[in-house]
Inverse folding.
């Protein structure tokens, strides 16, 4: 979880973390666990991340963690959902190149490291792959299609149907994901601006926009 997403009163700064009372878990415990998982993932990598390590860093019992999450993958999925909701949002008035630049920056942050780690682990774990695809990735795909569609309609001044937006999402995001996930290199300004320009030019030609 990125530092910006953390509250000023970081749960890890206290010697004792509030335990759950009643049917709902304590928000301070939840945040402490997510922050701990985020930090340890960066420090030790996915293979070195353990429930015991998360519990020790968060200042909670392992039983508390297992009460709410059955694995470190589930913890990371919660962390990703919290961080990515704003980081990967499409902002009104933002052009394609600017959105891609924010996405490229996201991949270099701790929250982006969570997504990269989960995508890598999903290649070896069918259950984790299904959870990631049917949860976070499906919702993010929906947001990307809607966001790109609205952005193209604003920039081109012409309607864009959903099927076209689906194909443009692949063309827009594909180069960035390939560079980051396959080549292991950051996507620089040239990559993001080139991808944005090509999609914009293609959409303009196919849709007959001025």
């Amino acid at each position: 979880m990125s530092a910006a997403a953390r509250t000023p009163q970081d749960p890890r700064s206290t010697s004792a973390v509030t335990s759950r009372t009643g049917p709902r878990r304590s928000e301070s415990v939840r945040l402490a666990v997510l922050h701990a998982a985020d930090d340890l993932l960066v420090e030790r990598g996915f293979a070195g991340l353990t429930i015991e390590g998360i519990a020790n860093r968060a200042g909670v019992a392992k039983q508390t963690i297992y009460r709410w999450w059955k694995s470190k993958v589930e913890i990371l999925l919660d962390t990703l959902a919290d961080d990515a909701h704003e980081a990967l949002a499409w902002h009104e008035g933002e052009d394609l190149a600017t959105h891609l630049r924010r996405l490229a920056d996201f991949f270099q942050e701790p929250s982006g490291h969570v997504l990269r780690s989960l995508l890598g682990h999903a290649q070896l774990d069918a259950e984790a792959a299904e959870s990631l695809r049917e949860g976070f990735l499906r919702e993010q795909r929906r947001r990307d299609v809607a966001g790109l569609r609205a952005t193209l309609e604003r920039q081109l001044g012409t309607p864009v149907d959903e099927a076209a937006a689906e194909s443009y999402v692949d063309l827009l995001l594909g180069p960035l994901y390939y560079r980051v996930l396959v080549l292991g290199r950051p996507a620089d300004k040239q990559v993001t601006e080139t991808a944005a320009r090509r999609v914009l030019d293609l959409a303009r030609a196919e849709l007959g926009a001025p």
